[in-house]
Write a structure and sequence with these properties.
CATH architecture of the largest domain in chain A: 3-Layer(aba) Sandwich
Number of helices of chain A: 19
Number of strands of chain B: 2
Number of strands of chain A: 23
CATH superfamily of the largest domain in chain A: DD-peptidase/beta-lactamase superfamily
Number of domains of chain B: 1
Largest sheet of chain B: 2 strands, antiparallel
Oligomer: heterodimer
Strand content of chain A: 15-25%
Helix content of chain A: 25-40%
Structural class of chain A: alpha+beta
Shape of chain A: elongated
Number of helices of chain B: 15
Strand content of chain B: under 5%
Distance between the termini of chain B: 73 Å
Distance between the termini of chain A: 129 Å
């Protein structure tokens, strides 16, 4: 100890040296630490700095337009417009009263409404108003008010109001398409967002030129040209709106299709909504396009598919006649016709359709089972099922560009089911089987066009931002659905139905001679969710065609639970078809017979 | 009352007169060329500080909501005032400062009282500032300056009288001073950083004046204990220690400034981002112009620049300690040592916090940081050191003897030069 205290510095100068030494030692220590922090751990701290400082922002791409062809022009029906969101940074606003008044002068509304937002506590970002126009945004900018700003965003504009609303869908605030074309074609419409990497200050404002700043320009989306004919679409919508009211229906849908390529010329439902104001829609069901996702038991329009199946199978021939007993007893249940047709008597294939004989449809199934008998066996069931599912693609999704779709239901030919023959005796005329309006009109198109099942399509072509056109070629999903002759035989049969109804009192089914019009009514019982059918509730359906030398348009109508007297098909479905067919003829959309 | 008790009482009786004794001997060493390097190094550091403040002025303007040039203008004004202060202290003779130090102490006490009495406001959240219109100054800088002169004077007298080891005459007044500073600066002004500077300064001066090691260790122990108490009774200080020990886990809360400081330093790398390219000043690192300026500097100039700045400080400390070494008398020696401790402790505490070696204290980086008061008082202190450097004694090898000899000793120049002529080893004209 004594030794130690001897060695300790005693004089002031010695002690000053000691202190200088200590200070120098600390400086050296700091130098070593700086070496460690700035050189050895450089990349760690560089990354930590970038995590804070480097802001990556997406530059939204301009969304593609949705257009239709109108004669030779391409007309947009969905456009973009910049709308602005007004926001505030409340702590920066010194005189909220004054600012609120200025805001209300520019965008309307009571200034008192804005004061609360402008004086909000504990926030530096509060949205004051949405959907300001460009000029309103400019006026806000001119105020030069610190803490007040606008943020632009692309919004969709619909110059034609609710035109094809449920087909189009809408774009949600995140810029993602929902429902319809906007959802199905979102990838093509959205384009690729660009990217902006920038070193920013603590508030995210990019600093002037930095080596780290990079910018990738956004790639705008493609324009989508629809197959819709804007004129037909508009008028179909008007017709549906009118008939919806006059039949006190719960919903009507109609599709007008070109049977030779699957192009949809019109597709509409009523009720509908205004896509510009989608946010105020409370009933989500309105967003859905019932024509593609609301399958029902179609009723007797099913006979237009059972007949060609039986014809193509060779089970029947178009000029054949048979003895109709007016009812069949199958598994102890009666199959009888929906209307009194004068009891058991001789009937033809034409009268099966014209009178809508359920016994006739069941008879066709019997002929498919074993020609010349009145039994239903596995052969008939399996053959019918094969036609419906593998030829007409019922029970399968069509792949329509709507983003969502219902597949409907065809009961499987399960021969272990003891009531399978009764079940199939019913499906032959459209009960116990379900399909969307789109499925049945596409299936019948494949018969009428001579046997080719085209995938139904709403998209005609894509136009890239550089103007390159990419045509959506009609896609063939099934070939030789039925032989071409079957279609040729079915056309006059369906024309006969129209004539029969005209003579039966449906005077609106009177069409000019230089056009061909054919069709089939359907009055479908509505199944209870608990099993069995409602007594007095029916869906009215109709499927038919209109054309000149050959059918030019196929038209399907679904009228859900119309509140009318008489058969739902005759008085709920048929008038809508008639109105659409007349409109197509009168407006010159149909090429008359040569 | 036992005789033992009486001795104890006598021993601890506070001899207040001893605190303001007047016994001034003028320096009677020869005047020679001053240490101009002192001035040059300080000037370089002031320029570096000004350049940094200028380069981050757009960021300062953004974060403070004023024009960025405001900070540059204020700092230029501070530097002008600093030059004035330097000229005053460099030219008013040292014995005058000793003679009238009481008024300096009075001014310091008055300023501290004003600062304590003035109500706080958002811009001046603690009782540390004396405000006159748009001007404000931190009273503690004046207090440190006054205490420094006072301590040098007091201890020099004790040395002269051989009373440095006398408990009643030396240790008790020192304790009284320490407690006073602790109550006012640490307690009322909540300025633990400055308190630390003062306490270390007083302790080191006592040590240099010859206080035995044993006493120093005891004083050190007491200071450490008081520091622990000061930390323990204030939750925010506990949080600061906790933050210091685990900076990474507290990055978004209490440790934000520490984290951003070391990120700034580390991201500078070897050569730095360049003067115009730092990012941390743009709102990430609080007090970018002030307490955190070293991190901003290190970000811009990297390891090389940081080492250069450390070397500048090292050179300054070397010059000052050399002057202390050769000081003509005990007062000037103690004063110079005090300046060395003052500047070095502030610089080391500040830089140490920026590189994650010490907890964060609200202490500026001498000559570099924005802030008028600190610049002016450091310049004033350097001015006095500069004046003292005119009277240093250089001829005697083994200069530890210089204290014991009379100041006129340089009459015997070992270099065979003309009698009465002093020289400066670095600057002296030897031709």
């Amino acid at each position: 100890m004594a030794n130690l205290s001897d060695r300790l510095p005693k004089t002031p100068v010695e002690r000053i040296k000691l202190i200088s030494l200590l200070i120098s030692a600390v400086l050296v220590l700091f130098g070593i630490r700086l070496f460690y922090v700035q050189i050895i751990r450089y990349s760690h701290y560089k990354q930590a700095a970038l995590n804070d400082q480097l802001e990556q922002t997406k530059i939204p791409a301009t969304r593609g337009l949705i257009e239709v062809k109108d004669n030779n022009n391409i007309v947009p029906i969905v456009l973009n417009q910049k709308l602005y969101t007004l926001f505030a940074d409340p702590p920066l606003i010194k005189h909220p009263q004054v600012v609120a008044e200025k805001i209300s002068k520019i965008i309307g509304g009571k200034s008192t409404n804005y004061i609360n937002q402008l004086t909000a506590k504990h926030t530096q970002y509060i949205i004051i108003a949405h959907q300001l126009t460009q000029s309103q945004s400019n006026q806000i900018a001119k105020l030069n008010q610190p803490g007040l700003g606008t943020q632009g965003q692309d919004a969709r504009v619909y110059p034609d109001g609710d035109l094809a609303a449920q087909v189009l869908g809408f774009v949600n605030p995140n810029g993602v398409g929902e429902y319809g074309i906007e959802q199905a074609m979102n990838k093509q419409l959205a384009g690729t967002p660009g990217e902006l990497k920038a070193i920013t200050d603590v508030n995210g404002v990019p600093l002037a030129a930095s080596k780290q700043n990079t910018q990738i320009a956004p790639k705008p989306g493609d324009n989508v040209v629809l197959t819709l004919n804007i004129g037909i679409q508009q008028q179909v919508q008007q017709i549906l709106a009118k008939e919806y009211k006059s039949t006190k229906s719960q919903g009507v849908s109609a599709i007008v299709m070109n049977p030779y390529n699957g192009h949809i010329k019109a597709m509409a439902n009523y009720p509908t909504y205004n896509p510009a104001d989608y946010a105020s829609v409370t009933n989500q069901r309105l967003f859905q396009n019932a024509a593609v996702d609301y399958p029902i038991e179609p009723g007797s329009i099913m006979k237009t598919l059972t007949t060609p199946a039986a014809l193509n199978d060779g089970a029947i021939s178009s000029n054949e006649s048979f003895f109709d007993p007016a009812h069949w007893v199958i598994n102890g249940f009666n199959i009888h016709d929906i209307k009194i047709d004068g009891g058991p008597r001789e009937q033809t294939i034409a009268s099966i359709l014209a009178l809508s004989l359920n016994t006739g449809a069941t008879w066709m199934l019997m002929q498919m089972s074993h020609k010349g008998t009145t039994v239903i066996n596995a052969t008939g069931i399996k053959t019918w099922h094969d036609y419906m599912v593998n030829h007409f693609r019922l029970g399968k999704l069509t792949g329509i560009q709507q983003g969502y779709e219902a597949s409907g239901y065809v009961p499987p030919p399960n021969m272990n089911d003891p009531s399978i023959d009764l079940r199939y005796a019913n499906t032959a005329f459209g009960q116990g089987v379900s399909m969307t309006a789109l499925q049945i009109v596409t299936a019948l198109s494949s018969v009428i066009n001579g046997g080719t099942y085209y995938q139904p399509s709403l998209v005609d072509e894509l136009i890239t931002p550089s103007g390159k056109v990419q045509v959506y070629k009609p896609k063939i999903l099934e070939k030789n659905v039925v032989s071409p002759n079957v279609g040729k035989e079915l056309i006059p049969l369906m024309e006969g139905v129209v004539v029969a109804y005209l003579h039966g009192g449906s005077y609106f089914m009177n069409f000019p001679n230089n056009y061909i019009v054919g069709g089939k009514t359907g009055t479908a019982q509505v199944a209870k969710p608990t099993g069995g059918y409602y007594k007095n509730i029916y869906n009215g359906t109709y499927i038919g065609f209109v054309g000149g030398d050959k059918p030019q348009y196929l038209i399907v109508v679904y009228n859900i639970k119309p509140n009318i007297t008489g058969y739902a098909g005759t008085f709920g479905g048929q008038p809508i078809f008639a109105a659409i067919a007349h409109m197509l003829i009168n407006e010159g959309y149909v090429t008359p017979k040569s | 009352m036992s005789p033992h008790n009486q001795t104890l009482k006598k021993r601890f009786r506070f001899d207040w007169r001893s605190l303001i004794e007047k016994n001034v001997e003028p320096i009677n060493a020869r005047r020679h060329k001053p240490d101009n390097w002192l001035m040059v190094i300080c000037a370089i550091m002031l320029v570096i500080g000004l350049v940094i403040i200028y380069s981050i002025s757009p960021a300062l303007g953004l974060t403070s909501g004023t024009s960025g040039s405001y900070f540059v203008e204020r700092q230029v004004l501070a530097i002008v005032l600093a030059i004035v202060a330097f000229l005053i202290t460099a030219n008013i003779p040292l014995d005058q400062w000793r003679k009238y130090y009481k008024y300096l102490i009075l001014a310091a006490i008055l300023a501290t009282m004003v600062a304590v009495v003035l109500p706080v406001n958002p811009n001046y959240p603690a009782h540390r500032w004396v405000r006159l219109g748009s001007l404000s100054f931190e009273s503690v800088d004046l207090l440190i300056f006054a205490i420094l002169i006072w301590m040098a004077h007091f201890l020099a007298l004790r040395m002269k009288k051989g009373l440095i080891t006398n408990f009643r005459k030396t240790a008790v007044p020192l304790f009284a001073l320490l407690i006073g500073v602790g109550v006012v600066v640490a307690g009322i002004q909540s300025d633990l950083g400055s308190t630390g500077v003062i306490v270390i300064m007083i302790t080191v001066l006592a040590f240099v004046a010859g206080l035995p090691f044993r006493r120093i260790v005891i004083i050190g122990g007491i200071i450490a204990a008081l520091t622990v108490v000061a930390i323990a009774i204030a939750p925010y200080r506990i949080a600061r220690v906790e933050t210091f020990l685990h900076p990474d886990t507290n990055c978004l809360t209490t440790g934000y400034q520490e984290c951003q400081a070391i990120i700034g330093v580390g991201s500078g790398g070897i050569a730095g981002l360049g003067l115009g390219s730092g990012v941390q000043a743009y709102g990430y690192l609080p007090e970018a112009d002030n307490d955190s300026i070293f991190a901003i500097y290190a970000e811009k100039f990297g390891f090389i620049g940081s080492i250069i700045l450390l070397a500048l400080f090292g050179a300054l400390f070397t010059r000052i300690s050399k002057i202390a070494d050769k000081a003509p008398d005990n007062f000037s020696r103690l004063f110079v040592v005090g300046v060395l401790v003052w500047i070095s402790i502030e610089a080391l505490i500040n830089i140490g916090a920026m590189i994650g070696l010490l907890p964060l204290k609200g202490i500026t980086l001498p000559f570099i940081s924005y802030g008028g008061t600190s610049v002016v008082f450091f310049a004033a202190a350097i001015g006095l050191v500069y004046q003292i450097s005119r009277y240093t004694l250089y001829n005697v090898p083994g200069s530890e003897n210089s204290l014991t000899r009379r100041a006129g000793i340089n009459d015997y120049s070992s270099h065979g030069r003309r009698i009465g002529r002093a020289y400066h080893p670095d600057l002296g004209d030897r031709s």
